[in-house]
Amino acid sequence: MASVALSEAEKVYIVHGVQEDLRVDGRGCEDYRCVEVETDVVSNTSGSARVKLGHTDILVGVKAEMGTPKLERPNEGYLEFFVDCSANATPEFEGRGGDDLGTEIANTLYRIFNNKSSVDLKSLCISPREHCWVLYVDVLLLECGGNLFDAISIAVKAALFNTRIPRVRVLEDEEGSKDIELSDDPYDCIRLSVENVPCIVTLCKTGKRMGKVLHTSLQSVLQKEESLGPKRQKVGFLG
Amino acid sequence: MALEMRLPVARKPLSESLGREAKKHLVVPGDTITTDTGFMRGHGTYMGEEKLIASVAGSVERVNKLICVKALKTRYNGEVGDIVVGRITERRRSAEDELAMRGFLQEGDLISAEVQAVFSDGAVSLHTRSLKYGKLGQGVLVQVSPSLVKRQKTHFHDLPCGASLILGNNGFIWIYPTSEHKDEDAGGFTANLEPVSLADREVISRLRNCIVSLVTQRIMLYDTSILYCYEASLPHQIKDILKPEIMEEIVIETRQRLLEQEG
Question: What InterPro entries does UniProt report for this protein, alphabetically (chain B) (predicted)?
Fold first, then answer.
């Protein structure tokens, strides 16, 4: 991410503050900014959520479509992630500037969901080896105010919680050809259990202390602290 | 490590929450302010087709026969004598510059200076020819819109709560711990890198959050308003000031005290 120029004195001030558990905006090292979560914001999706964390604004839309299961997992559906870091979020994303970050975040999301416990993929299967639900999860960065990974993981969890997948039945003819029937009731749908979807917590080592990289409303102060810490550890944990 | 989550709430319009009686006359560029030709035109207006038209988005201010439009958000326009706080982004690369300035000022340093001259394209030239200007040491920078910084006689304030402020006309506000040794450190180019005490840090963080609260409710920033806001925020924890409802509460109290003081 972009870095902000800081004077030596400012850096020293910030590092000493972190060591005493008092950040520039008065938060302790382990305090988050206020989070605002809203679901069902986009009408033509199967599920959506919007999360605001300080100045970071994330919009996630989930669309459920029918597809063929992957060869190695014939009994499961799957998720596809796409992260769009648009130029609206911050001027650094102009042109192709946001592509690298978008790919990095998408790869992280793939890694998180690439295990049996996050989401029950078997419930997305309609008929083995032939039909399954594919959930296309689109993440849009509306505003970049720091701590993207945490906010995106919260937003994806909320959007998946909000997702409504229509209930379908597979009817088999005498000749063996299958027909997929959608139920008449538009509110008859299956919901996903998101209890085990992980939430990302980003930690940053600044000076001699580990704290959260969740920063204050001014993006520049956020970037100030991020530019000080050389290492950023991402630990995904369940629950 | 608790995370506070909330559902979004519809925000109330500012005038309702602050109890303003008279509604401001808001205009956008191109709006007709008045067709009466008896008025003198001030900033943000121009005369066209026998009408007074606004050229910026803001609220109309009228002083007797002078009509001007006060813009909501402006880029900083320098005036001679303004105090500004600035960050060095680029520097001239000449041999003598290298020899002379490198030792004192680096890229990324913050300085306070006064505007010496304004060029026709809007660029300003600054000088630090007094001991009170110069490189800034440890502290916190808050960036706000220039239109919110009130023009005053002095922009250097030592608040009784234990910290000092520099209210730059360009919207850059510098909060720093009041140094006890005023004569030695003032205006020098060497920064003091010793750790600042926890009590001073708390005052500085609280002031920073108060300034941010005042900015969200668009209150003019000057020493009195910031000090009242600081005092109103004392019952709350520093990090709680960032919450919207507490921010609103503090600013309403500040506004009331300011109104009482004026009227």
Answer: Exosome_cplx_N_dom, Exosome_RNA_bind1/RRP40/RRP4, KH_dom_type_1, KH_dom_type_1_sf, NA-bd_OB-fold, S1_RRP4
